[in-house]
Amino acid sequence: MTFPEQTEPSEKPKTGFTAETGESSGLGFCGWILTALSFILFLATLPLSLFICIKVVQEYERAVIFRLGRLLHSGSKGPGIFFILPCIENYTKVDLRTLTFDVPPQEVLTKDSVTVSVDAVVYYRVHNATVSVANVENAHHSTRLLAQTTLRNMLGTHDLHQILADREHISNSMQSVLDECTDAWGIKVERVEIKDVRLPVQLQRAMAAEAEAAREARAKVIAAEGEQKASRALKEAADVISQSPAALQLRYLQTLNTISAEKNSTIIFPLPIDFLSEFLHRKNN
């Protein structure tokens, strides 16, 4: 009794092991005998053996089958129903969905000798189930350890201001390095994000004081520039008014109007200066 087997053409063994040309090739005489006995046992125990030999994997899963310790040439199988021989075959399910894990906070000494605590999150998935099982003992655990080491190594080559300002560039570089290293494990690193950069308390206070001093300096510069522009404007206005005595009187009347509109008060209105100067001129003559 046989069942159709679904395989993934893209999931072929790459490195770390050699695929056999046939499912039973290389088993030897004992292997052939055990395979035959296993098939006879399956037929003798029908239909109960169907509950043991027929397996199902989901759409997002693949099954990597080993026969007498050897990987089958077809690689991984699934999704759907597949068949295994009793006693001589075993399989491992591999989840192909995107997984995430948090990189624990790492104490990193930056290039400018500042100790910071940095944590990150990594998004990855298994893109080759066969390789992830045959080439590494635990692909997920190995990826986590590699992410921690890569995070410390990469941040150690950057200054503090680069880590704070260029998070996206550092994340992309880390993703490229991880993806290149984990390709031999059948792992595809899709994205890396630096979550938080925690600075020592003393350094935070020093940076806050520096930022406050910089803001105060900018405020003083802006105020000085405003005073300079105001002085130039007053000088230009004085030059214009000095050329026309009538303009000075109009400005004087406008100022009195503004004062009287703000408060209900009595205003002593002196005689115009030009009127008094005319009498003084006649007296001198």
TrEMBL record:
CDD domains: SPFH_stomatin
Localisation: Membrane
Domain spans labelled Band: 52-211
PROSITE patterns reported in the protein's UniProt record: BAND_7
Family matches, as InterPro entries: Band-7_stomatin-like, Band_7, Band_7/SPFH_dom_sf, Band_7/stomatin-like_CS, Stomatin_HflK_fam
Assigned keywords, A-Z: Membrane, Transmembrane, Transmembrane helix
Coarse class of the protein's main subcellular location: membrane
Domain of life of the source: Eukaryota
Keyword Glycoprotein recorded: no
Pfam families: Band_7 (PF01145)
TM region positions: 32-57
Family of the protein in this entry: Belongs to the band 7/mec-2 family.
Stated name of the protein: Band 7 protein AGAP004871-like isoform X1
Taxonomic placement: Eukaryota, Metazoa, Ecdysozoa, Arthropoda, Chelicerata
